[in-house]
Amino acid sequence: MTTLAPRVLRTLQQFHADHPWDHNAHYHQWILRQLPRRFDHALDVGCGTGDLARLLATRAKTVQGIDADPAIVAQARKLTAPAAPVSFTVGDALSDIPPGPYDVITCVATIHHLPFSDALTRFRQCLAPGGTLVVVGLARAQSLSDHLLGTAAIPSNVAMAWIKNKGRKAPRPASMTAPTQPATMSFPNIVRDARQVLPGARLRRRLFWRYTLVWHQR
Q1: Which residue in 213, 218, 217 sits closest to 191, CA to CA?
Q2: Is residue 149 part of a domain?
Q3: Under a CB-based contact definition with an 8 Å cutoff, are residues 212 and 206 in contact?
Q4: In a domain, 175, yes or no
């Protein structure tokens, strides 16, 4: 029994290496459900290859994506149709955001790379009155409920990987090639700090090792 857990872990890691799927893209349709049917200007922070930015463009007049990785921004530009109302900028998410204000700001799997409260403050400053901020983030597992939710996600994760790849080995999606780092903040600390900066923000733990934050500028 002492070798079972490591063996199972290695098996799961190999399975997901052979059957990768984008956990962040899983939340894109959920993000759209938090937003108005039409809006003028949107900002996607940590845009990566631009999948979410292009999706936002189906509702927005203009979409601005920003990412610190020049290579992945170049890829986003290649994948975006010339006529699409989407532009991409290489830059720091705190200091290089193009002038707003924005009716919608999204930030997916990026805010744990940034000073958390400073990032939320900057997003609040860039958000237009009546605008919506949606964050999908990662938190460090700390409590028993965190670990139970992570364990509960494993069979769903395997099922999703199998369904999305139809049981076959698959190449790693382009959207999953960006550098990553582990989250350092626990969910309770995220909730505490977020509500200090964004009173009334709604936060929830989610499957697939994610949490969500939604806030509306008054």
Answers
A1: 213
A2: no
A3: yes
A4: no
- What are the residues facing 105 on neighbouring strands? 43, 133
How confident is the model over 102-154, as pLDDT tens digits? Answer: 999 999 999 999 999 999 999 999 999 999 999 999 998 766 565 555 555 44
The residues pairing with 211 across neighbouring beta strands, listed in sequence order, are 137, 205
How many domains, in total, are found in the chain? Answer: 1
Q: Does 165 map to a domain?
A: no
Contact 56, 79 (CB under 8 A): no
Dihedral sign (CA 191, 122, 49, 27): positive
Number of Cβ atoms within 10 Å of the Cβ of 105: 27
Domain range for 205 is: 35-139+182-216
Asked if 127 and 100 touch (Cβ cutoff 8 Å), the reply is yes
Is the residue at 151 inside a domain? no
Rounded Cα distance, 198 and 215, in Å = 7
Using one digit for the tens of pLDDT, what is the confidence trace for 48-75? 999 999 999 999 999 999 999 999 999 9
Rounded to an integer, what distance in angstroms lies between the CA atom of residue 59 and that of residue 40? Answer: 8
| DSSP string of 91-157, one letter each residue | S-TTT-PPS--EEEEEEES-GGGS-HHHHHHHHHHHEEEEEEEEEEE--B--SHHHHHHHHHHHHHH
Strand (E) or helix (H) holding 194: helix 187-197
What's this model's pTM, rounded to 2 decimal places?
0.79
Radius of gyration of the chain (CA): 18
94: domain CATH number? 3.40.50.150
